[in-house]
Write a structure and sequence with these properties.
Layout: E1 3-8, E2 12-17, H1 21-44, H2 52-80, E3 84-88, E4 93-97, E5 105-109, E6 113-127, E7 136-149, E8 154-160, H3 163-176, E9 196-200, E10 203-209, H4 214-235, H5 245-275, E11 276-282, E12 286-293, E13 299-306, E14 310-316, H6 319-322, E15 327-332, H7 333-341, H8 346-355, E16 361-363, H9 370-387
Antiparallel strand pairs: 1-2, 2-3, 3-4, 4-5, 6-7, 7-8, 9-10, 10-11, 11-12, 12-13, 14-15, 15-16
Helix pairs in contact: 1-2, 4-5
């Protein structure tokens, strides 16, 4: 699910958002099926023994959840993905429109685009054999076509099952878009009302708060309860699983450890968003990023980057991998040099992250859509250039 070329001539190239029809229908129908199966199981069985008890709870709950997810996918798609991406060859601008009805737009200059390219994603799946002679492993490849900006930000445009289709689109984009063309009109600096702005003498400050509803934590807690009930049933010797021996318990222990790490990371991030407020202040000397206790406004942390040392402010739009989740990054010159050094060393990147050597500042605005993110990036870059000396950014 991405974007398709709707029309193209020597003046412009228009890409439109693909629909979510098949994906939505698959989730909704699968959810409905398992929900009905769960109702049937509950009607014909009142067993409180494992695993029937787990089936009575898990099957209808997850079926209902998938059914709601399928029904909500179209709305989430519209809220998290721009409707159109227009490459205007005469003006030299990419115009990204969130919704034609709202006319909310953001822009990328042609000469701010570094290249069009393909990212290959590899996924493997395995299945066990009923003969007991081992299973089979299948590898799938997905080819993501993206636009890369000179500041490092990426806009993922389409995904294909074959490299030939992806290469064809990249070649078409390269032929159609002149990356050397300078825009013939100035990009407007627009700041969404979802971010608070305050100007003081030679400094401008923006501040924001992310809101996480109580329902979010309730859903997470419910998921954890169901998972732990199922895992607890397998861990119980009462139901014969003790016959698996030490190896069986090691496997289950590993699953439990991974589950705790993932849930802990998610819960920690949600708690931070629920209890923290943020601000960015830009003066003639530096950009200062601050985090505060939301309830008391007490300063928790502060990071200062001199404007002359600010390498980039970038935003990446990657809907197929994150389903619309987006983030913005502030990168210093020093951090950029480190990133270049470890670019082809994923293990070193992981070590640096664990050791806290990753000094990039990751900004999260839960209320913003991709167009508002790009507008904010453009606005911040404009403020930095106007406050700083020549050569900044």
């Amino acid at each position: 699910m991405g974007y398709s070329v709707k029309s193209s001539d020597n003046k412009q190239l228009l890409m439109v958002r693909d629909g979510a029809g098949c994906t939505s229908a698959i989730f909704a129908l699968a959810g409905l099926f398992f929900f009905l199966v769960g109702l049937v199981v509950n009607y014909f069985s009142d067993s409180h023994e494992f695993p029937m008890m787990a089936m009575r709870i898990v099957v209808p709950v997850f079926g209902f959840g998938f059914m709601i997810l399928g029904l909500r996918i179209p709305a989430w798609t519209k809220a998290s993905r721009p409707e159109t991406i227009l490459f205007d060859h005469e003006v030299g601008l990419v115009t990204i429109t969130m919704s034609v009805s709202s006319d909310q737009k953001a822009y990328i200059a042609y000469n701010d685009i570094e290249k069009f390219d393909v990212e290959i994603e590899k996924q493997s799946s395995s299945s066990s054999s009923s003969t007991g002679r081992g299973g089979t492993s299948t590898t799938y490849y997905y080819y993501h076509v993206y636009l890369k900006k000179r500041d490092g930000g990426r806009w993922y445009l389409a995904v294909f099952n074959t490299g030939e289709e992806a290469d064809k689109l990249v070649a078409f984009m390269k032929e159609s878009v002149d990356l050397q063309k300078e825009p013939t009109q100035q990009i407007p600096l627009v700041l969404t009302e979802k971010v608070k702005k305050e100007e003081q003498f030679d400094k401008v400050t923006i501040s924001w708060k992310n809101h996480v509803s109580v329902i979010t934590f309730v859903v997470l807690a419910a998921f954890c309860a169901v998972f732990l009930c199922i895992l607890g049933g397998f861990m119980s010797k009462e139901h014969g699983v003790g016959q698996l021996g030490a190896f069986g318990y090691i496997v289950l222990g590993f699953i439990f450890l991974v589950f705790c790490l993932v849930i802990g990371f998610i819960a920690k991030d949600w708690y931070k968003q629920a209890t923290t407020s943020y601000s960015i202040a830009i003066s003639k000397k530096a950009l200062v990023y601050s985090e505060y206790e939301k309830s008391t406004e007490r300063l928790k942390s502060e990071t200062e980057i001199p404007l002359q040392q600010l390498y980039a402010i970038n935003f990446t739009f990657d809907p197929d991998k994150k389903f619309g989740e987006a983030g913005m990054t502030l990168i210093s010159n020093e951090e950029h040099e480190r990133m270049v050094e470890v670019a082809d060393k994923p293990l070193q990147m992981l070590k640096d992250f664990v050791k806290g050597k990753d000094k990039s500042i990751y900004l999260k605005f839960l209320a913003l859509n991709p167009v508002e993110y790009l507008q904010l990036e453009t606005w911040l870059e404009g403020q930095v250039r106007s406050k700083g000396n020549k050569g900044v950014l």
